[in-house]
Amino acid sequence: MLSYYFDLAFRSFRQNKVLTALMVLAIALGIGASMTTLTVFYVLSGDPIPNKSGRLYHPQLDAESMSGYVPGEEPAEQLTRFDAEALVRSGRADRQALMASGAAAVDPEDSRLKPFYVDARYTTADFFPMFDLSFRYGRGWSASEDEARARVAVISRELNDKLFDGADSTGRTVRLDDHEFRVVGVLERWRPVPRFYDLNSERYGEVEQVFVPFSTSRDLQLSRSGSMSCWDDAGGDETGLNAPCVWMQLWVELDSPEKAAGYRAFLENYSEEQRAAGRFERPTNVRLRNVMEWLDYARVVPGDVRLQLWLALGFLLVCLLNTVGLLLAKFLRRSGEVGVRRALGASRRQILSQFLVEAGVIGLAGGVLGLALALLGLWAVRQQPAEYADLAHLDPVMLSTTIAASVVAGLVAGLLPAWHACQISPAMQLKSQ
Amino acid sequence: MDIRPILSTLSRHKTAAGLIALEIALSCAIVSNAVFLIGNRLERMAQPSGVAETELLHILLAGTARDADHAALTREDLAALRAVPGVRQVAAVNQVPFQSSSWNTAVNMQPDQTHPTLVGTTYFGSEDLLETLGLRLVAGRDFQPDEYQEFAAFQRSGGESPIPSVILTRDLADRLFPDSEPLGQSIYAWGNRPSRVVGVVEHLIRPNDTVGAPNEREFSMLLPLLAPTEYGSRYLIRADPERRGEVMDAALAALDRVYPSRIVLEEQTGTLEAFRDTYYQEDRAMAWLLVVVCVALLVVTALGIVGLASFWVQQRARQIGVRRALGATRGQILGYFQTENFIIASFGIALGMALAYAINGALMERYELPRLPWQYLPAGALTLWTLGQLAVLGPARRAAAAAPAVATRSV
Amino acid sequence: MLQMQNVSKVYRTELVETHALRQFEIHVREGEFVAVTGPSGSGKTTFLNIAGLLEELSGGSYLLDGVRAETLNDDQRSRLRNEKIGFIFQGFNLIPDLNLFDNVDVPLRYRGLPRADRKARIEAALEQVGLASRMKHYPAELSGGQQQRAAIARALAGEPRLLLADEPTGNLDSHMAREVMELLERLNADGATIVMVTHDPELAARAQRNVHIVDGQASELEAVTVPLRTRSHAGDA
Predict the structure, then answer these.
(1) C-alpha–C-alpha distance, residues A307 and B289, integer Å
(2) Contact assessment for residue A343 and residue A426, using Cβ atoms and an 8 Å cutoff
(3) How is chain A split among helix, strand and coil, in percent rounded to 5?
(4) Which 328-367 residues of chain A touch chain B by CB within 8 A?
(5) Is B8 on the interface with C (CB under 8 A)?
(6) CA–CA separation, A332 vs A417, rounded Å?
(7) How large is the C-alpha radius of gyration of chain B?
(8) What is the overall mean pLDDT for chain A?
(9) Radius of gyration (Cα) for chain A, nearest Å?
(10) What's the burial of A46, exposed, middle or buried (CB within 10 Å: 0-12/13-18/19+)?
């Protein structure tokens, strides 16, 4: 029976080529636009570290002075160096790493290469195991190397390719800002999307190419970048231990909800202690968000991307309405045919199925064309200057979603017209004709 | 043409008419908001920066010269740059428009204010900065040589070394001193000592207007400080627009002669015009996208109207023949379908306007957009009405061309 | 009232030329009730279309109530049709989306009459055919005879000089057919000029005069001897 409906559907398409093409095109445009924007949205709002995002937490404290205090306001997104170091030292979490961003001039051994700048991250030993980083060569550094302000560095695979032609460079020397560092590890490629651990710049950018111990970076006064906010005069030393400035990120790993609750209590307790000691002036106001909560709070998906998604969905809705209207016209034009079929013994159900098959096939055709349009759309997104541009690719999930969505769209669009068509009474039609 | 019989006919084809009306409503709502958004983006892009964009070059050198005497090096660099042929003016600077890095400070009117009046950005660098940027002074004067001090020295003082003077943008001056003359008054911007307003410039945007609300984009001030070099050396060169390319090459060569093998940060070295272009690229892309969506929406809606009108014409072929037999002229048949479309469009537009306001409300909440100006509504209505009339013209003409003899044809 | 001289009508397609009417002559005087008969394919419908100004003639001349029809453009013909002719179709051709009042209103609208005038005419016309109480009904809610009577009311409302009826009883059963025929005869008795196309000789016999079309040419049959009025009175008795 179904094959008969398909046969009827194709006959009907041949009869109304222009109308059919219009409907397919309308669905394709709507689906193409929606899937393009939905894919971008899906990529940008994804979980950057799916295995651990529920166990990684981002603590916030309110260390500012009373100046500008507004009760109920969120505490600063970053920490002071004093607090970050104190919390890492306390070791209350399963793992903890403080970090800050910077930049360093790399002076290659190979004299044919000119010196160049790379982004650097100054952090502590737990960074690598906590974020599940895998190493191509070597390993991360140890807590004792943090302590000793060792001149060690972990470099990205990209930098290793550039400086050492991809060879195992552990034990070799890399010159950063005129200082010699021993390479202890080379990372495998890592691209968390978004770059959740530090959202101050390039939220969807690449990960840094050089990692060195934070203690070493302060020792050598390596240059710092990223956002910094001071509420008092730092006397020319904003990165000093006691500077009234927030500029560091801290991440902790807490393997169970109980531990998370315990750590929150610890943060409150710490804040109270600091208040008692006179370092904190504001009432205790701490936050402990896991990765997805943090991304949500930071509104990481760009507003324009959300706007485009809504726009595309609105467009799809108009395209669907259009298809409903055209299908209605098409089906009702065949009232006579329906009357005859009904007179010849077709049930309402059978008429409904016939027209739904036709609508579904239109949806499918629209989906295939829409997929092509979505690929074109994503190609266009990749040509954009946005930092997330290179991430806009269709994955198998979105691909199958596209096809499924368009068939569903076709069926939904066909439902009302098909229902109308199957309401046609056989007697009425035959008589008035 | 009297509309009652048309209404009566439409009321017997509610579903089809309703669908088209709904489609028109959605198109109307989305298009009015999209056009509004496009207007917003264009407005943002068209706002003056206040600086001589077409004449400015910016160079950023990374500060590898770690042991050098920075102040002396900066003076040498500036002298070398001034000597480059084609250079009109040169200044050191801490930040430039259309770049992501910016220096911001709270601004207070009293020394011990608990809540800052506002947060603004601070431009400084070297003497001649105001002229090099090409700012237009609308009141007061530029800084005098004895007002300048090294940023490092100021910082070491712990905010106690006074910054004697400050130059504000007109926008900032109006905000801080709404009812009085700003010249001669004092503000507390950086440090605990007052700075006297000595000048007001017409325009100067923040390096990055994503910091602060849209109406704070000109919260900028100039300070008589000499730029620090620990974050690298930034220089602004004002040159003949035609000679920018050669001046840039010569300037980089000159800087290399002053102190060899400093790293030029390519991304932040170039013309202000190019920076501006990159800076607004996303806005431009978004505006184009909105244009494309609007056109696509209108085309799809028009096709929907054509499709449904064609269906109706075909369905009513006999009725049209009868009307013709009863004496209707072609023009009257044409008029019938156009009036019918006008009525459907009007229902759609009425609904669309309500929807447009609802969408605008949601956008206002999420994107800090202003309220949709009422002028957009009649404009949107007119667009959809015109679109409907044009779309229905083809099918209606076909209907009008139908031979009246259809009426006598037996079925 | 209606005079055709040497009228011809040729339909051309890519392959064939069909001469639907040739040297066609007919003359209908004011107040007459003329039946046009003939077998199917003889040119009856073509005659009707030309008489009703629905189609243009290929040759000859056609004088309708003193107006030369062959020189008119489409709009002028629409106007003339609207003012001088009342159509009664075999399939009634009421507009299904409009109620009876609005259906009868259609030709009056095209004439652009003021509202009050239209209302009076519609009510009078519906009264005349006995459907005044069904004004708000839609065609689908009426019997075939009632629909045809409504169609006649629509034809009458414009006070035409000429009623053109195309197989007016063709879609009706005998009872309803008689009803409609009696209505037409009464209208004729009140002074209306009627041209009725039919293939039914019995019906044709009730007209005052018969014109027979064969192969696109007309031949006048002998006049009916019995005056129509007498016959109709006899029918009533």
Answers:
(1) 11
(2) yes
(3) 50, 15, 35
(4) 328-330, 332-333
(5) yes
(6) 8
(7) 32
(8) 88
(9) 31
(10) middle
For B351-382, what is each residue's pLDDT tens digit? 999 999 999 988 888 777 788 888 888 888 89
Say whether A304 and B114 touch across the interface (CB within 8 A). Answer: no
Contact of A188 with A135, CB cutoff 8 Å: yes
Token pair of B301 as six digits: 């809606």
Tokens of C158: 């414009």
Interface contact A111, partner B, CB < 8 A: no
Which residues 293-322 of chain B have a CB within 8 Å of chain C? 318-319, 322
Given the structure tokens 């064609």, which residue do they identify? B310
Q: Six-digit token pair at C149?
A: 């009577």
| Min Cα separation B137/chain A (Å) | 31
What single-letter amino acid sits at C19? H
Q: Does C199 touch chain B (CB under 8 A)?
A: no
Per residue, the 3-state secondary structure of B273-305, as one string, reads HHHHHHHCHHHHHHHHHHHHHHHHHHHHHHHHH
Q: What is the Cα A277 distance to its own chain's centre? A: 41
CB atoms within 10 A of CB A198: 21
Is the minimum CB–CB distance between C98 and chain B shorter than 8 Å? yes
Residue B321 has pLDDT above 50, yes or no: yes
User: In this predicted complex, what is the ipTM?
Assistant: 0.83
C-alpha distance from residue B49 to each of A56, A319, B46, B54, B60 (Å): 43, 41, 9, 11, 20
Indicate the pLDDT class of residue A120, thresholds 50, 70 and 90.
very high
Count the residues in chain C: 237
Where does B143-280 have alpha helices with state H? 151-156, 170-176, 244-258, 272-279
Could you report the per-residue pLDDT of C159-197, keeping only the tens digit for each? 888 999 988 888 888 888 888 889 899 989 988 899 999
CB proximity C89 to B under 8 Å:
yes
For the stretch A377-425, pLDDT in tens is: 999 888 877 778 888 888 888 888 888 888 888 888 888 888 888 887 6
Q: Are the C-beta atoms of B195 and B189 separated by less than 8 Å?
A: yes
